[in-house]
Request: fold
Amino acid sequence: MKVTILCMVAACSALLANVASASSFPQKSVKIVVPFSAGGSGDVVARLLGKHLGERWGRQVVIENIPGAAGQIGRSAVVRSEPDGYTLLLADESVLVIAPQMQGGKDVQPLEGMRPITPVANIDFVLSVSSSSGIRNMKAFVEQGKKEKRLSYGSAGVGSIHNLIMEHLADLLGLSLMHVPYKGTAQVFTDVVSNEVTAVYSGIPQARSFIDAGKIVPLAIGSAQAHPALPGVPTISSELGMDFDGTAVWYITAPQKTPDSVISQIHSDIRSILDDPAYRDAIHSAGLSPADSKTDAKAELLSKWTRWRSVIDARGLWPQGAAK
Reply:
């Protein structure tokens, strides 16, 4: 009897502590880790989100960039952090889904050490070619690809989200595209402008200055709907009459053992921000689009884990020694 009472007291104490941690969260500043260098779209999203969360919480939200190893250094830093909600990770599926498989092989477990909370912004991509290429729309791109067989495209490297989306598109269209990997996107644009590489599939913000200068031609957008940042540019789906999802998503995640109550508090606060017109307008202005606040982040990422695993398998993209 005494043991039973003690167990009940311990359970109640744990429950009350859990409730208290949620109602009083946060008690200090919160850190959002971005696993890439400053200046990219992830940095923009983190700072926008941090601004709104800081105003809502009355606490400072610090953004820390920890780049390296395709985002895995920053991800690992968050996995190893105290699971209390005060260290969060802003990452896309290249960090949460693709790189863990490409670096860890087929035996790696999905979302190991991480607890997805919510998507916060969609990354909209655009497929572009040099203005001197003579290609002006998706149909011409496909026709030339089937005729010449070896159109090329540049990306930020083997296993990048751009690489996998283009390989998936090539598979759907029956094209043989030559992949030219780079260490970053800056040199890709230089070579596309000079027509040394046929195409680049990039985020809209990265392409905008080249499009505005007339150096590259935007053929189509990879999302389901047209984007206000590129009025008049059609989607790949509408141009080719096919169902194609060529987007990526920024997610907020926490260490695996973060308490449910804290996760719920963070999710609720971010969901309110995602529905705020000011946040949505700022995201659109950055060349991105707002995420659906009702999306189940974990279910979506597990689905993407399977999706990109099948593309890696089908296109033979496993690095040597990774396909165990």
The mean pLDDT is 90. Residues 125-240 form a domain with the D-Maltodextrin-Binding Protein; domain 2 fold (CATH 3.40.190.10).
